[in-house]
From TrEMBL:
Homodimer. Substrate binds at R290, R326, Y330, E356, Y384. Specifically catalyzes the decarboxylation of meso-diaminopimelate (meso-DAP) to L-lysine. It catalyses: meso-2,6-diaminopimelate + H(+) = L-lysine + CO2. It comes from Sphingomonas guangdongensis. The active site is at C355 (proton donor). It is an enzyme of class 4 (lyase). GO terms for biological process: lysine biosynthetic process via diaminopimelate. This is Diaminopimelate decarboxylase. Its EC number is 4.1.1.20. CDD domains: PLPDE_III_DapDC. Pathway: Amino-acid biosynthesis; L-lysine biosynthesis via DAP pathway; L-lysine from DL-2,6-diaminopimelate: step 1/1.
Length: 422
């Protein structure tokens, strides 16, 4: 199977596509980017980002009080965040570093949501100082500390209580967050009494509840089940005398990584939310990450060696697990295509140069035939790609490039080995 044949099966507008046998990002050939910037390099398409961002917003914006906060951890690149801010997105952050990124990118403080299971006092203070719009509390003591810090500043912290609905998201165990045994949120059975106590604290402006059950969900059923439980909790809290004005439904919508993957569309998700939340009478917050940024990025790499192996040849590429950790972390799959479309295919194992057997991107896969020196890409790396990069094996962080039409800009600098040592 050739790269061209594989990509012709993709649906929707194509921002990474072949022209005269060469893979382009919008109107820029990837060969040109490799020559100008080197490899490996993360390449984002501004058009693809705008398309996915607008598609998700269109699916939920008709819902009452809808707010979309992009999960910064999926792609914290400042140019990416700026573009999303222009499309009406706020930010869902999980650390003080992400707070700084979101503010630097020009995100409105009122549109920033602070999630995160272990916020330090320093991070809470900085977020209060910045006047962010929403704190999602992960445990009762966090609410007490935040209330004290806010009271000391003469303000009330706008807050939601994150609840763990005890629903199996049916996703990879390492990215499931909504089961009873996971570390996130407070048990739904304990939530009403805890909410009663937190609502009495002067420093908190407690507005409702939040949840996020996991990532890369390929089915709406677990989300719907979790939302129904949260809906019951909203009515229970009202019966206890609380004014509930906001519910944060989290993120988690999956995207196709294999050509045959079928995932719910944002429109189907929006329709389910509209149906389930019709009687809630609250404003809704959404925290999408992957569904906005995932398909907008590829990782461009060069083949260093084609090496004989016991069962299949090894394609040793210059990208490694430090550039793209998902395969090593979760056994995740990223499609691999040659930049110059050929007619032949081969079965091979793709691996990076890092000294770990886990530094493998796919075992015995049918891929485009490549030779030493050829350029190739891993698809769908715009979310949890560069975001998870490390300098393991003293490898420099790869640069990031944003393509917009016929232009491209380096938007994240490669760290040179000298700087790495410094
Ligand atoms: C990671 C995360 C998200 C985003 O998840 P996606 O699967 O990328 O949409 C949203 N909310 C919270 C609290 C998260 O931890």
């Amino acid at each position: 199977m050739t790269g061209m044949a594989q990509d012709s099966m993709a649906t929707g507008p194509r921002f990474f596509d072949y022209r005269n046998g060469t893979l382009f990002a919008e109107d820029v050939s990837l060969t040109r980017i490799a020559e100008a910037v080197g490899t490996p390099v993360h390449v984002y398409s501004a058009g693809a980002l705008r398309h996915a961002a607008d598609e998700f917003r269109a699916a939920v914006r008709h819902l009452p009080g809808a707010r979309t906060a992009f999960a910064v951890k999926a792609n914290p690149n400042t140019a990416v965040l700026r573009l999303l801010a222009e499309r009406g997105y706020g930010a869902d952050i999980v650390s003080g570093g992400e707070l700084r990124r979101a503010l630097d990118a020009g995100m409105e403080p009122a549109g920033i949501v602070f999630s995160g299971v272990g916020k330090t006092d320093r991070e809470l203070s900085d977020a209060l100082e910045a006047r962010i719009g929403q704190f999602n509390l992960e445990l009762e003591e966090e609410g007490e500390v935040l209330a004290r810090l806010a009271h000391g500043r003469g303000v009330r912290a706008p807050s939601l209580l994150r609840v763990n609905p005890d629903v199996d998201a049916g996703t990879h165990g390492k990215i499931s967050t909504g089961k009873r045994e996971n570390k996130f949120g407070v048990a739904i059975a304990e939530a009403p009494a805890m909410y009663d106590r937190l609502a009495q604290l002067d420093g908190l402006d407690l507005r409702g509840v939040a949840l996020h059950i996991g990532s890369q969900l390929s089915d709406l059923a677990p989300l719907e089940a979790a939302y129904r439980r949260i809906g019951e909790l909203v009515f229970e809290l009202r019966r206890r005398g609380h004014t509930i004005t906001r519910v944060d439904l989290g993120g988690g919508l999956g995207i196709p990584y294999h050509l045959q993957d079928r995932v719910p569309s944002p429109a189907a998700y929006g329709a389910m939310v509209a149906r389930v939340t019709r009687e809630w009478n609250v404003g809704l917050t959404f925290e999408p990450g992957r569904v906005v940024a995932g398909a907008a990025g590829i990782l461009l790499t060069r083949v260093i060696w084609v090496k004989l192996g016991a069962t299949h040849p090894f394609i040793i590429v210059d990208a490694a697990m430090n550039d793209l950790a998902r395969p090593a972390l979760y056994g995740a799959h990223h499609r691999f295509s040659a930049v110059s479309a050929g007619r032949e295919s081969m079965e091979a194992t793709i691996a990076g140069p890092v000294c770990e057997t886990g530094d493998t991107f796919g075992v015995g896969q049918a891929i485009d035939r490549v030779r030493r020196g050829d350029l190739a890409v891993f698809h769908t790396t715009g979310a949890y790609g560069a975001a998870m990069a490390s300098s393991y094996n003293c490898r420099p962080l790869s640069p990031q490039v944003l393509v917009d039409g016929a232009d491209f800009t380096v938007v994240g600098d490669r760290m040179l080995p000298a700087e790495l040592v410094a």
